[in-house]
Structure formats: structure tokens, C-alpha cells
Specification:
The mean pLDDT is 91. α3 crosses α5 and α4 (85-104) packs antiparallel against α5 (108-122). This protein has 214 residues and is mostly helical. It starts with a helix and ends with a helix. The chain has helices spanning 5-28, 37-49, 53-77, 85-104, 108-122, 140-154, 163-186, 191-213.
Length: 214
């Protein structure tokens, strides 16, 4: 999936972006996630067991929005493959900017809606022809691969094959710390920095692709 240093760099940048956004969302939602749906799924199960129906409904809504975002991302990719990466990133930037506008207009729920959709959509950036993509907004799979590829390395396989997945994990952690600091500084308005980062990545990828084709 990550076939070049460019791919690794882009994946790490997007993982950091996702961590940043998730750090903001986690603090704003009081312990729920905008990109880590495994954690939300556990919270959903606990809420159902406690008969906390309204809380369960809210968590389920976050999960449904994330799935919808992933579906939109896949629709953009279908038939376009890697050529659609700049468009996906541009849509993500627009959604995150929309979240910033909603927050500024006193509509925090709509802001969270746009953020969760953006996080679901981001996972399609490395999806090719509708196949399975690379998870960028969660790193459980990346950590599993670190362990698996480390075992391969210790038994004579590629020495550093595990490193890109470890970098994805580290990028998400660093992004989460930055998001928490941003939220402590300016609350949900910190999402504007994420929108700017997504727009910058969209432009960078578009230029890189143009140069490759030239």
C-alpha cells in the first residue's frame, strides 16, 4: 500500500492530521471520538448495557456519520484510483473549514457532523479502484503490523519493514497532543488549522502528481 517514501510521508501527514482532529473531538465530546470508531463501539456497548439510550443513540450517530464519510470517499475513488487523492483531500479541507464556520456560527453539532464525515472520508486516500484502503485515522492495525513485521525482521526478513507502521502510530500520537493543545487554546476553533493542513496537502499532492506526469 505504501510503495514509496512519498506515500509514507503523505500517510504520516494524514495520520498526524487525524490525530490532531481526534484530540480536539475527544475533548469537545467529553471522551468520545471523531475518528476512532473502535473506541466508540465499545462506548456504544457499555451505554446499551447501562440502558443509557440517549447516549447510545449519540454514539451510534457518530459511527453512522463516519461510515457515511468512508462511503463518500469510496465513491470519489471508484474509477479514479490514486488520481483522486487531491480531490479527496480538497473535500476533506472543505468539510473541516465548514466545521470551523459552524462553530463560529454557534452550531457545534453541525461542526462535529462535518468533522466526523471528514475523518471517514480521509481513509479513502490510499484506496485504489474501490478496494480496501489504508486506515489513516486509527492505528490498531498499524501496531499489529509493527509486531508482525518485527517478527519477520527477526527471522531474516526486511530489517526495517515495520518502521512505516510505527511512524504512522507516532504521527497520530503527535497529532493528538497538538490537537489537545489547540483545543485548550481556542476551543473548537482549532479545527481551522486542520482545514488549512488538509488544503495544503491537497495542493502538494496535486503538484507532485502533475510533475510525475510531465
Amino acid at each position: 500500500m505504501l510503495k514509496s517514501r512519498r506515500d509514507v510521508a503523505l500517510a504520516c501527514a494524514l495520520s498526524m492530521l487525524a490525530g490532531y482532529v481526534d484530540g480536539i473531538g475527544f475533548l469537545h465530546l467529553g471522551g468520545l471520538f471523531v475518528s476512532f470508531m473502535s473506541g466508540n463501539s465499545t462506548r456504544l456497548g457499555v451505554s446499551l448495557a447501562d440502558a443509557a439510550w440517549w447516549q447510545a443513540a449519540g454514539v451510534f450517530g457518530l459511527i453512522a456519520l463516519f461510515v457515511a464519510g468512508a462511503a463518500v470517499g469510496s465513491l470519489v475513488v471508484l474509477g479514479g484510483g490514486a488520481e483522486r487523492q487531491p480531490w479527496l483531500l480538497l473535500i476533506e479541507a472543505v468539510l473541516l473549514a465548514g466545521a470551523g464556520l459552524c462553530h463560529a456560527s454557534g452550531m457545534p453539532n453541525l461542526a462535529i457532523t462535518a468533522i466526523v464525515l471528514a475523518m471517514g472520508l480521509e481513509n479513502a486516500v490510499f484506496q485504489i479502484d474501490g478496494g480496501a484502503g489504508l486506515g489513516l485515522t486509527y492505528v490498531t492495525g498499524a501496531l499489529v503490523k509493527v509486531g508482525q513485521l518485527l517478527a519477520v525482521s527477526l527471522t531474516g526478513g526486511p530489517r526495517w519493514g515495520w518502521a512505516p507502521n510505527l511512524l504512522l502510530w507516532a504521527a497520530l500520537v503527535a497529532g493528538s497532543a497538538a490537537g489537545a493543545l489547540g483545543y485548550a487554546w481556542i476551543n473548537l476553533a482549532a479545527i481551522w488549522f486542520a482545514a488549512g493542513a488538509a488544503l495544503t496537502l491537497a495542493a502538494t499532492v496535486a503538484v507532485a502528481m502533475r510533475r510525475t506526469r510531465a
